Amino acid sequence: MQTTFGSGQPGRENTDLAFTDPLTGLGNHRRFFDKVDRLISDRADDPAPFTVGILDLDGFKPINDLFGHKAGDDILIQVAMRLRASMDGYSTVCRIGADEFAYLYPMVFSEEQAAEKSRMLIEILSAPYDVGERTARLSASVGCSLFYSGDETTEILINKAETALYHAKRSGRGRVVVYTREMEEAAKRVTRIEQALRRAVSAGEVEPHFQPIVDLNTRRTIGFETLARWSDRDLGMVPPSVFIPIAEERGIIGPLSQLVLRKATEAARSWPKDLFLSFNLSPSQLVDQNTGLHILAILDRTGFDPRRLEIEITETGLMTDPASAEKIVEDLRRVGIRVSLDDFGTGQSSLGRLREFHFDKLKIDRAFVSSILDDRPSEHIIRAILAMCEGLGMDVVAEGIEEEAQADRLVQFGCAGGQGYLFGKPADADATLGYLRDSYRGALRAKAI
Predict the structure, then answer these.
(1) Which domains does the chain carry?
(2) pTM, two decimal places
(3) Which of 69, 103, 125, 441 is spaced 20 to 30 A from 135 at the CA atom?
């Protein structure tokens, strides 16, 4: 008996370890899949509904970076304790990723009840966490799916919950989304767009368009911002607000960006030498240390002067990995490329970033410009930004100018640069060249007069 017991016990221990998350003591992804598999099997003859949920901590990485990995682990342990304590005798919670947890509610039969119980979990996790002598706060996003028929597998249910989680995180922090059939159609459309975009990038079918940036005092064009445009033979014109996030999420943004930059610099070579070209980098490119090398290789290939290129990055992009972003910015500035902070005031960066990164230019977000004529807070914010930039020796461009009155007010406040539909909509390379020729002729006529 003793020999039998001795040979069997380690096997059970090894099995338990294989199904357990070592940090939190919760079950791991294997445990969770096993639990859902068993429940589907138990209900095969009578498929009564149940709920699967995926919970992802919002903003965990910045907290982990700020307080350190030890503190991050302590927070995850506290999260696990709270989630475990909130489960009833029928329910299960497991840790299935770095900051991702999954739960199974066998007795939750409706979408309304699933959403309500998930909101309760978010509320439980929103209380402060002890981090040494300090405290930290977290929010969480949740995606849920319900089992309705015996045709659904564990993988299908979890994929649906992940799709719902994706929608929850895109709609803001601390949200719950329950999977619907409409999401399934949306997910299929995203996949179709992704596949078409991959083909388009490979075939060089995404084109740069250019929007003028002007000196607000003289209305003289001083540069252009590059914007990607894509028209597919089957999908038609796909807005950048649709295909850029997909490119970012599906790992296409690097090749897409390189294609557009190459075409843009080839077009801009024939422009007057005093005009600069502005180009946006995405957050994922600011964590890829090859980004600078790719940009320099393209400039070398097209013969475009680095001193005429201006790279725009956002506050959100900076915060993804500040150390990586800083190195990329330094590499670009070293060869004469200027760096601009885009959409200022709408992200999560601190004012200290302006000192640390040594930006050449700051772009005031259109959200402030659009309300400058009738909103006193926006007016004061713009005045404060302009005063700050003057003190820091930074150029300023206000985006989204659509009315003469907005331009006049910005000039009155001392803003030098402007961009928006008032001065020109984005246009392709040929139309931009025509715009420049017309501007040149207009300048010559003005001089003759």
Answers:
(1) 18-179 (3.30.70.270), 194-448 (3.20.20.450)
(2) 0.73
(3) 103
